[in-house]
Specification:
By secondary structure, the chain is an alpha/beta fold. The protein contains 23 helices and 27 strands. In the N-terminal section; belongs to the NADH:flavin oxidoreductase/NADH oxidase family.
Length: 687
């Protein structure tokens, strides 16, 4: 062990017998979308090479199918022909310029396929995909096992150090393993010995094709988190059989994609599931990897030093910062651009069949396109506004060699992030602000807080160009009685509530059910102060129905406990929107359901198709489907959108200044830090 290291367990090599990993960090599998783009493998090679250069010990690629029926989508990635090897060699050659190993993930989607040729153990449709799968014949099962083995052989030819066989998250091998989806009555169904047979025969076949000196990781579903999931005894039996069949390492799989338990979003506590890997450590002897919501070297070190696992897997943290491991090794963890678990630019993009990237690092997956080259001539730039857009632009432009000064009328950096960080479950936003504060210090960027700028002051300072990152203003509504409501502090804006801590009564109506409306509802759940289960694992597991004692299959509790239960002072909250679509429809694809479920668990009412008639002393008079009703409310909180704050633009342009608008000052539709930071990077790259 490297005891001189700030993270001795994390940075200790792992001896696999026939080969050694340089540290205990796995960059977990994540599909990027580059796999299917024309010329995408050259970009993918640059993406993985940056992470290898950044010090990661082992990389697992996004999922690649061993045959056509197992593809994610009609033109999804597949490795089943010799002529497909060459493009993969670009990736392995790029990674192997550094002491990093790389494994290809072999993933057959089964009933999760987004195409009509899907197959599964039984004809049982998935709730999250449009097609009903065909039940596999015995011949197809045997053919699929051969396809896995051949794909592994091709992976070895392509230069991969190993493969990860995906046996979790509700994909084909997991579908065979559980009675939820396996209704067969032949030798591939019924008992756990039969249901796990596909996994074991696949590992055996792969091992016979690739020999002993090739890494085989098996991703085992240790927590199915669905009805009809496996019991702990069945999971253990399968793990022991996986080890005996020739796997090198077992990776922890958590939850099916259709599970109603969140497993990776921001509100999931850090390292929320490492306890199940620790439980498995008592049962097998090969190395175990733990995963999910591990996003700092400190959390990873604690897991490893306490013996919960032999390696840690992080996927999204390597989108956020390619140099994660090197920074940890240099005792610079405070310089890491931390993953906040938002999913907005990574998983949400992938599920919309767009290229993945990262909200806090828009260069991720754009390493060959969004490049910050040094400038030949430095410009003196003023940035007005120290929210996400202004902060990101200032760092990127300074890195290119420009002289940047930043001004904000408020007393702290962060803009709307200072609102977001106070929402229960969004505490990770503090990390992004810590990162920017550190970057400003390292780059010595002049920062003027509590200073309001004017056209005259900016003109007098002699800036070459001005970047307005001045954010947004809450939109004013015209509803009968609203002025009187404002005067008696019955009507408040979301800024009054979250930023200024205005007093809020027991009955609340929230106008606007976008992201801000959901945030305000979450903020107000509970008693007079906002509470969060993010840092209380047992409370969080109870709320979402996860049983650490594993009394039931899938590790689900018989009864979940809502955050507000037992709390005498539960607010009555009603969330309202004009649109007739489902409340929360515009939220993120992978996280929106979590926000809706959280509010539902805590008895928040949600109404769509609302016409706002009047603010009255007793509350808010509305009309839904032609019927008037009164929502009794001590407070009515306005979360109905915002407008760009461009107060300085016209005056600057009139004085001949070159002005750029970024972030909310450019487009203020739903607050969008992802777009703001990307826009800042794109401007910084060309200015």
């Amino acid at each position: 062990m490297n005891t001189a290291s700030p993270f001795p367990h994390l940075l200790t090599p792992l001896d696999l017998g026939f080969t050694q990993l340089s540290n205990r960090v796995l960059m977990g599998s994540m599909h990027t979308g580059l796999e299917e783009e024309r010329g995408g493998f050259a970009k993918l090679a640059a993406f993985y090479q940056a992470r290898a250069k950044g010090g990661v010990g082992l990389i697992v690629t996004g999922g690649v199918s061993p045959n056509m029926r197992g593809r994610i989508a009609p033109f999804g990635s597949e490795l089943s022909h010799f002529w497909q090897v060459k493009k993969h060699q670009q990736v392995t050659a790029a990674v192997h310029e550094y002491p990093t190993k790389i494994c290809l993930q072999l993933l057959h989607t089964g009933r999760y396929a987004y195409h009509p040729f899907s197959v599964a153990p039984s004809k049982v449709k998935s709730p999250i995909t449009p097609f009903t799968p065909k039940a596999m014949s015995v011949r197809q099962i045997n053919g699929t096992i051969k396809d896995y083995a051949y794909a592994a052989k091709l992976a070895a030819k392509a230069g991969y150090d190993g493969v990860e066989i995906m046996g979790s998250e509700g994909y084909l091998i997991n579908q065979f393993a559980c009675t939820r989806t396996n209704k067969r009555e032949d030798e591939w169904g019924g008992s756990i010995e039969n249901r796990m047979r596909l996994a074991i025969e696949t590992i055996t076949a792969v091992r016979s094709k690739v020999g002993e000196k090739f890494i085989i990781i098996f991703r085992l579903s240790m927590l199915d988190l669905v009805e009809g999931g496996n019991s702990w005894d069945e999971v253990v039996m399968m793990a022991k059989a996986v080890e005996k069949a020739g796997a090198t390492i077992i990776n922890t799989g958590i939850g099916w994609h259709e599970s109603r338990v969140p497993t990776i979003v921001t509100s999931v506590p850090r390292a929320a599931f490492s306890w199940v890997t620790e439980k498995m450590k008592k049962e097998v002897t090969i190395p175990l990897i733990t995963t999910n919501r591990i996003n700092t070297p400190e959390v990873a070190e604690k897991i490893l030093s306490s013996g919960q696992a032999d390696m840690v897997s992080m996927a999204r943290p390597f989108l956020a910062d390619a140099d994660f491991v090197n920074k940890a090794a240099q005792n610079k963890s405070n310089e890491i651009n931390t993953c906040i678990g938002c999913n907005q630019a990574c998983l949400d993009h992938v599920f919309q069949q767009k290229r993945a990237s990262c909200l806090v690092n828009p260069m991720a997956c754009y390493e060959t396109e969004l490049v910050l080259n040094k400038v030949s001539k430095s410009k003196k730039l003023a940035v007005i506004g120290a929210g996400p857009a202004g902060l990101a632009f200032s760092v990127y432009a300074t890195q290119r060699g420009h002289q940047v000064e930043v001004f904000d009328k408020l007393s702290e950096i962060g803009g709307q992030f200072n609102i977001a960080k106070q929402i229960p479950g969004k505490e990770e936003f503090y990390e992004t602000l810590r990162y920017f504060n550190k970057q400003f210090e390292l780059l010595a960027i002049p920062l003027h807080l509590g200073v309001k700028q004017s056209v005259d002051s900016l003109k007098a300072a002699g800036f070459d160009e001005v970047i307005l990152a001045t954010g947004i203003k809450p939109r004013q509504l015209t509803i009968d009685g609203i002025e009187a409501g404002l005067a008696r502090k019955q009507v408040l804006s979301y800024l009054d509530v979250i930023r200024d801590k205005a007093t809020v009564g027991n009955k609340v109506a929230i106008i606007g059910a976008g992201g801000i409306g959901f945030d305000v509802a979450s903020f107000l759940i509970g008693d007079d102060k906002a509470e969060s289960t993010t840092e209380n694992l047992d409370s969080w597991l109870n709320e979402w129905g996860v049983d650490k004692n594993y009394h039931n299959g899938g590790a689900l509790l018989a009864k979940t406990v809502s955050h507000g239960e037992g709390n005498k002072k539960i607010r009555e909250i009603t969330l309202l929107q004009r649109k007739t679509t489902k409340v929360g429809k515009g939220l993120g694809k992978t996280s929106g359901w979590v926000h809706r479920a959280h509010l539902t668990k805590n008895k928040v009412k949600m109404l769509a198709g609302v016409n706002y008639k009047a603010v009255v002393e007793k509350g808010l008079l509305i009309e839904v489907d032609g019927v008037e009703q009164l929502i009794e409310a001590d407070q009515i909180i306005i979360c109905a959108g915002q407008e760009p704050n461009r107060d300085l633009e016209q005056g600057l342009v009139a004085h001949g200044a070159t002005v750029h608008l970024i972030g909310g000052a450019n487009v203020a539709a739903e607050l969008d830090a992802k777009r703001a930071i990307r826009q800042a990077a794109e401007l910084a790259a060309i200015i």
